Amino acid sequence: MMTVALALSDHHAVAQDFSLSTDLLGYARLGTMNMDASYAVSRRWSLVAGVRYNPFTFRKGDLERQFQSRQQSYSIGARVWPWHTWSGWWFAGKLRYQEYNEGGIISRKTEEGDRIGAGLYAGYTHMLSPHLNLEFGVGLWAGRDAFRRYDCPVCGQVIASGDRIFFRPDDVMISLAYVF
Fold it and tell me: What is the C-alpha to C-alpha distance for residues 95 and 75, in angstroms, rounded to an integer?
């Protein structure tokens, strides 16, 4: 009955339940591709799942100049929006897993490993149009890191390994989001 009433009325209700976004700053980190998918479960809550991927090695084969920031990362979490989903300030929490290999950028030392942890994040979303948003945010991520450190990106000589607890900044972001 309600469906018929809505269909016959002049007013059209448009629900914007889904969002896809990509962090533009992520691409500046040596081409790290990324995507977040969000679903609004209520007016003030949304669920978000994300992926980051960087398979690139630069100057591969040049023992003195090779560098990389390779990773694959997966996250799932929730955002609370004090005003309304997809608009204004937001606060978030998420769980994240990352497999990484970084090195040769600042020094010849290279590190690889697996990180798992949880993070707290905050940001602001500016509506550019009814379907396009610009998001700004920053977060802190903490958890466990199982790592191996090498003397150089290609030598394979392990100089340290182990498990450690980490606290690090995460998701310094400027994202473009499409809401539909």
Answer: 6
Residues above pLDDT 90, as percent of the chain: 79
Non-local (6+) Cβ contacts of 167 within 8 A are 140, 141, 142
Q: Is 38 exposed, middle or buried (0-12, 13-18, 19+ CB in 10 A)?
A: buried
In the numeric block, the tokens 């003195």 are attached to 64
Angle at 103 between CA 100 and CA 105, to 5 degrees: 130
Q: Which two tokens stand for residue 12?
A: 């059209």
**94-106 pLDDT tens trace:** 999 999 999 988 8
Bridge partners for 136 per DSSP: 124, 174
pTM tops 0.90, yes or no:
no
